[in-house]
Task: structure prediction
Amino acid sequence: VISVISQLLGWLMNGLYEGLYALGTEKIGYSIIIYTLIVYLILLPVQIRTQKQSKMMSYIQPEMNIIQKRYRGRKDQDSMMRMNQEMQEVYAKYGFSPYGSCLPLGIQMVLLIGVYQVIYHIPGYVSKIGNLFSGVAEKISGSSGAVAYLTQYIADQRIRVTVGDALTSTNIIDTLYLLKPSQWTELINAGAMSDFSSDLTQLSSNLSQLPFFYV
Result:
């Protein structure tokens, strides 16, 4: 489910960026702002429902406390059944479902995870940005020495990229996207990456449009 939501949100992000790009705005930060506002508007009805459920529970809780107090210390099956029945009657009186907040919370959680996935892996969802990385990523993936170095670098720097049996072009793109300025300098100057230093330098000079704070 999360992968489907992430893909849909990725299409939204890509569409926003394509639209802003056509208007002459290339910085991804603007797309992130609009994207976040749209997701917030999608979640607004869910949040309102959750707040209503919470407020309703504040009215119900005193009556529930009275029922629980009445049956306190009575653990026999008959007493438990009567207590549950009385509690259900209170719920019915107010038209409240004790499980009604679970679905809205689940929807919010899934959407927020999807939002995080898209923002954290923007090159994988926004084609124009992904294209900035793809060429150098393909070159690096074809060099066993560079792959070995970058794999170790990811581990040493604790870069949050999941690497399977081998570092792929996708992993490399995710890694390059997450690098800090100081890490870019270190990577460009690394001996194992010397064959790609000019490509990395060119790529790093094009990335000022990407971070959110460069809006």
Observations:
- The first helix runs from residue 2 to 22.
